[in-house]
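Incident log, structure service

09:12 report received: a user says their structure output differs between two submissions of the same chain.
09:20 pulled the input from the user's history:
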Amino acid sequence: MIHTSTSEVYGSAQYVPIDEKHPLQPQSPYSASKIGADAMAMSFHNSFELPLCIARPFNTYGPRQSARAVIPTIISQITAGKKTIQLGDVSPTRDFNYVSDTCRGFIALAENAATIGKTINIGSNYEISVADTLDLIRELMDSKVEFITDDQRLRPKDSEVQRLWCDNRLITELTGFQPQVDLREGLQKTIDWFTNPANLARYKTDIYNV
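09:34 re-ran on a clean worker, output below:
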């Protein structure tokens, strides 16, 4: 059994890159619910020898992603022809992973018995700020769109995770997993999908999705 956790359980990094021994910090109800779910899942391994691995993916992006996430928010607003795009805080950093790499990570964990009973990160070991991600998307889309802060998109101060950067050495050591899609290539694949009018029509670029 693969139980899906999240990098959000680590909260804002106390050290980087973040390995699986990093303290857990319930900075939001979402991360708190994941911490509790992780403990419940692992209890079944400890008590009943359930062959379990907790997968802890960092920030996945790509085609079909929810408009709540920052990358589709940026791309869809530019594609819709907005002169300005609205975002929240762009200073936090993330370890973005193209969806196919995240899926490959899950498969690698499932296929290797050495992962049983362990909590294992899935990530790229690459950190970038939301602001720099915005600049890269603008470059790839040849856009000069301006950014403005939308206050309703700002998370409560103490719940915002300021820094995420994955230490992916454990998954590599146990399974040989390595990311295959770098950020520039992954963003271009994502842009290509969103710029298809039939796909863009699924998104409401005039509202803030929560």
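09:41 both user submissions now match this output. Likely a transient worker issue. Closing.
09:42 reviewer note: The chain has one domain: 2-200. The two ends are 30 Å apart (CA to CA).
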